[in-house]
Specification:
119 residues, alpha+beta, Alpha-Beta Plaits, 4 helices, 31% helix, globular, Dimeric_a/b-barrel, AI-2_Isomerase_LsrG, ABM_dom, ABM domain-containing protein
Length: 119
C-alpha cells in the first residue's frame, strides 16, 4: 500500500438545489464512494454561513485507489445527477500527509483521536 492521501472537493451549489444535492450524496453517491476499495474516511461539511457551500473530505489508502475510483461505473450517474445543481465548477484538491510527531496514529495510520473513544 502506498501513502494515504486526502482529497477535498469544494462545491458551490444553487441555493434551491442544496436539499436535492445532499439527498443524492447521502442516499446514493456517498455510499457508493465509501464502498470503493481504499476509502478510509468520507465526510461532508456545510458552511455555517452559506448552506450552498459544501466541502467534501475523503481520505484514501493511496493515490492508486483514489484514481481507480474515478473510473467506477456509478461516476457517470453522479456527474449527470449532480453537476446541474452546481452554481460553479467544483474545486478538487489532493493532499499528501506531512508527518506530525504530536498526533499519534493508530495501527491503520489514522489519527488515534479519531479512532479511540474518550475516557
Amino acid at each position: 500500500m502506498g501513502d494515504a492521501i486526502v482529497v477535498t472537493a469544494e462545491f458551490r451549489l444553487d441555493p434551491e438545489a442544496v436539499d436535492t444535492w445532499l439527498r443524492l450524496m447521502l442516499d446514493h453517491y456517498g455510499p457508493a464512494c465509501v464502498a470503493e476499495h481504499g476509502m478510509l474516511r468520507y465526510w461532508l461539511h456545510q458552511d455555517d454561513g452559506d448552506p450552498a457551500h459544501i466541502l467534501l473530505y475523503e481520505q484514501w489508502a493511496d493515490r492508486a485507489d483514489f484514481e481507480a475510483s474515478l473510473n467506477a461505473a456509478w461516476r457517470a450517474d453522479y456527474h449527470a445527477d449532480t453537476e446541474p445543481l452546481w452554481a460553479a465548477d467544483r474545486v478538487m484538491t489532493t493532499y499528501r500527509r506531512i508527518a506530525t510527531p504530536w498526533e499519534p496514529l493508530d495501527g491503520t495510520g489514522l489519527p488515534a483521536s479519531l479512532t479511540t473513544s474518550a475516557p
